[in-house]
Amino acid sequence: MSSPLILVNLKTYREGMGNRAHMIAQAAELIGRESGVTIAIAPSYIDLHPISHHFDIPAYAQHVDGCEPGANTGHITVDAIKNAGAAGSLVNHSERRLTLADIEASVRGLKVHNLISVVCTNNEMASAGAAALGPDYVAIEPPELIGSGVSVSKANPDIIRRSVAAVHVINPKVKVLTGAGIQSGECVKIALDLGTDGVLLASSVVKAKDPKAVLRDLVSKF
Ligand code: G3P
Fold this sequence. Notes:
- This protein is α/β, with parallel strands linked by helices.
- It has 10 helices and 8 strands.
- It is globular, with a radius of gyration of 16 Å.
């Protein structure tokens, strides 16, 4: 079984930009080494290239467009994030929803370039639909719990259980993450015990006074 993934989305938080993004990446590198757990971060596009080149951690884009390089303005292509050193990308995050056709194009583009796709969903039906596209990961995040400080692992374990089952009926090779309010090793342990392959989280690490301490706690129950 592959190592679980802890994927920290820095979103557009002020506390996740520039120097702070580097500080969080450094903490992720250190705790990842100490624990043997894969800790990845998804910084803003501006920080993607420096972070992927300066730190030995997987860096993800927060979104990618499925269009080919060429006459497109204001788009982010898979080629662009690959050149910036990205390991993969989130797709269809709750704060960056896409059409089904857009999701399919992004996942296809990521596959063509051997990058990891993480398709975000809001319930088990959407999770099953996303699994049909054959991404590497489906990440189930109930939108009402995102940024709430209330953990999906504790508030709604059933949605995790149902999503894992729904994804695996469609395609057992697709891995499942869960997110929203994840903040401790206990939340991560519950998520893994429910059959996920890791967690997607943001505010508890990005807004923490000491992100390293939070990361250390997140991996403490493996
Ligand atoms: O992308 C992760 C995210 O949507 C969850 O956010 O702040 O609830 O951990 P948060």
